[in-house]
Amino acid sequence: xxxxxxxxxxxxxxxxxxxxxxxxxxxxxxxxxxxxxxxxxxxxxxxxxxxxxxxxxxxxxxxxxxxxxxxxxxxxxxxxxxxxxxxxxxxxxxxxxxxxxxxxxxxxxxxxxxxxxxxxxxxxxxxxxxxxxxxxxxxxxxxxxxxxxxxxxxxxxxxxxxxxxxxxxxxxxxxxxxxxxxxxxxxxxxxxxxxxxxxxxxxxxxxxxxxxxxxxxxxxxxxxxxxxxxxxxxxxxxxxxxxxxxxxxxxxxxxxxxxxxxxxxxxxxxxxxxxxxxxxxxxxxxxxxxxxxxxxxxxxxxxxxxxxxxxxxxxxxxxxxxxxxxxxxxxxxxxxxxxxxxxxxxxxxxxxxxxxxxxxxxxxxxxxxxxxxxxxxxxxxxxxxxxxxxxxxxxxxxxxxxxxxxxxxxxxxxxxx
Amino acid sequence: xxxxxxxxxxxxxxxxxxxxxxxxxxxxxxxxxxxxxxxxxxxxxxxxxxxxxxxxxxxxxxxxxxxxxxxxxxxxxxxxxxxxxxxxxxxxxxxxxxxxxxxxxxxxxxxxxxxxxxxxxxxxxxxxxxxxxxxxxxxxxxxxxxxxxxxxxxxxxxxxxxxxxxxxxxxxxxxxxxxxxxxxxxxxxxxxxxxxxxxxxxxxxxxxxxxxxxxxxxxxxxxxxxxxxxxxxxxxxxxxxxxxxxxxxxxxxxx
Lengths: 417, 255
Ligand SMILES: C[S@@+](CC[C@H](N)C(=O)[O-])C[C@H]1O[C@@H](n2cnc3c(N)ncnc32)[C@H](O)[C@@H]1O
Fold this sequence. Notes:
Chain B: It comes from Phaseolus coccineus. Chain B: GO terms for molecular function: tRNA (guanine(46)-N7)-methyltransferase activity; tRNA binding. The complex is a heterodimer of chains A (417) and B (255). Chain A has helices at 236-239, 360-368, 375-393, 400-408, 411-416, and strands at residues 15-18, 24-29, 32-37, 42-43, 60-65, 71-76, 80-85, 91-96, 101-106, 112-117, 121-126, 133-134, 137-141, 147-152, 158-163, 167-172, 184-189, 195-203, 206-215, 220-224, 229-234, 256-262, 267-272, 277-284, 289-297, 307-309, 317-324, 333-341, 350-351. Chain A is mainly beta. Chain A has two domains: 11-45 and 193-401, no CATH class; 54-189, Methylamine Dehydrogenase, Chain H (7 Propeller), CATH 2.130.10.10. In chain A, the strands form seven sheets. In chain A, strands 5-6-7-8-12 form a five-stranded mixed beta sheet, with no helix packed on it. A four-stranded antiparallel beta sheet of chain A has the order 1-2-3-4, covered by helices on one side. In chain A, strand 9 and strand 10 form a beta hairpin. The longest helix of chain A has 19 residues, at 375-393. The two termini of chain A are 18 Å apart. Chain B has 255 residues and is of the alpha/beta class. Chain B has one domain (64-247): Rossmann fold (3-Layer(aba) Sandwich), CATH 3.40.50. Chain B is 29% helix and 18% strand. In chain B, strands 3-2-1-4-5-7-6 form a seven-stranded mixed beta sheet, sandwiched between helices. Chain A binds chain B through residues 138, 140-141, 143-145, 165-167, 169, 171, 174-175, 180-184, 186-187, 189-192, 228, 395-398, 400, 403, and chain B through 31, 33-35, 38, 40-42, 131-133, 135-136, 140, 161, 167-172, 174-175, 203-205, 250, 252-253. S-adenosylmethionine binds next to strand 2, helix 4 and helix 8 of chain B.
């Protein structure tokens, strides 16, 4: 895609996912998938006797638990989607994709797994009956744009897909998804850079939920998915004091990288590039507004989270920072896990010390690996993740002379000969 | 630009832009990334730029009128010019990927506006990749007609995803078309004609117009005669293959 020599190894951010009832926590770095059982207080050993290839062989790009917590999905650059039973932690289905996978979602009832490939196609797999190897069917497509996030609406009516072209598509999830999802409900348009993440907030007065999206434009936006109407925009980087309100040139430095609703959606945690901590937003569902409630900084440790996770109603936010294949680092799968607890509207959130973390030292050993590395390595890791993300998602405006030379170097032309 | 200025790209005798100054590469790759501004959303489309006489002050639309016809891959704009006078009350726009071709159409429209005061105010053109940005220009159910006239054939199987009519893109067209809205396609490439027709036939939100309906629709007659490409095909005595379908409510939604 680029004329500059492609780096041999691509770095991928560390990912975290928390079981909806906080039974377990999973971390993915590179091709490693690590799971800790919080109930048993021990590491989980995964089993995968898939006919083709067991486990993942390249960077994992997406992990998540199903809403009921029975299923777990992992997928990524090795073009495979693996569905795991969280009871046995064995791989129950392995799906091959034609392209690298960038996002996954599981329908509420656990019947369907959807995944997006790097060419903007979303595929669906029927898990009933649960066969070892399943063929995916095409569901919908964003025309040749990288899909960054997939999400079902809480009522299950819609599947949402966000892309690099600033776009969020809301599609009716049909009764027979294997025939494709043709009915578009709305487009949520307003971001001025790639959309990186989606999350829903729910409330009694609004059971269908309101959509939140984070973007490379350093904002978090609130949407009505039925109409696609933009309800509110929160300039999180400015509000958190990371940039001056006229700091346009630096816009890309503070892309929103992840969103995670905590406390049943009353508060939303936001991870931003270069921020050593998180921002807590509060969403007023009846007034349809977003505002910054608090900025929680990680005192005493350089920690820029690459991914957030939480189980509803616990008031705990799990964070991971790390990267696979950091150049010049001895550890190919670097990860550091931290927890913020006591997240509540009235309370003061606390960054939990390692000795008080749920699961204790064993959890940290399992999810982080045994590597002991200093802060600077983690900062370098966050920086590498940022560069990789910018590289992948930001639209480059090449000067026209440069564009001509790029054309000459294009791979698709070269391959023709 | 002042009108008295000599512009070599405008023909002195006809006052119309000369095509040779707007020659461009025959095909553009719709997959490559954009180097042109893209409207953030349909409400960001500045109607006062496109239809200055109908929308006087910028932004503040004193008219709530929206674009209703889209000519996708409009080329040199022949169809739009014909439609403009046939439907003087309807706002219409051409979408074209090639920069120079778009510039040509812009010039063509402004010359026509100067030469025919009060006319051609309802027609405009935008440079964009329709395959990526249709939803950035039109809202749900906004359009009543969409045109795909003599689109690039992209013969190779692996390039079929570059075709402007495809099962997935039809989802987006169904979204921007109102129920009852009509999609017009025509080509001189039989294989592409079959492809477009079968994509439309297999889509749950489109149904073919009947012979009778086709005959009654004055626009159908323009398909093979109004555009530059159509005229070229006609001159060479080529065959054409058309598919004209109506946007319907999918059967699982009717109650
Ligand atoms: C063969 S020409 C036909 C032009 C015109 N409709 C006619 O009948 O004379 C096809 C046109 O579609 C344009 N085109 C191709 N892909 C496009 C895209 N993705 N978005 C907008 N225009 C596109 C091409 O630049 C070209 O001008």
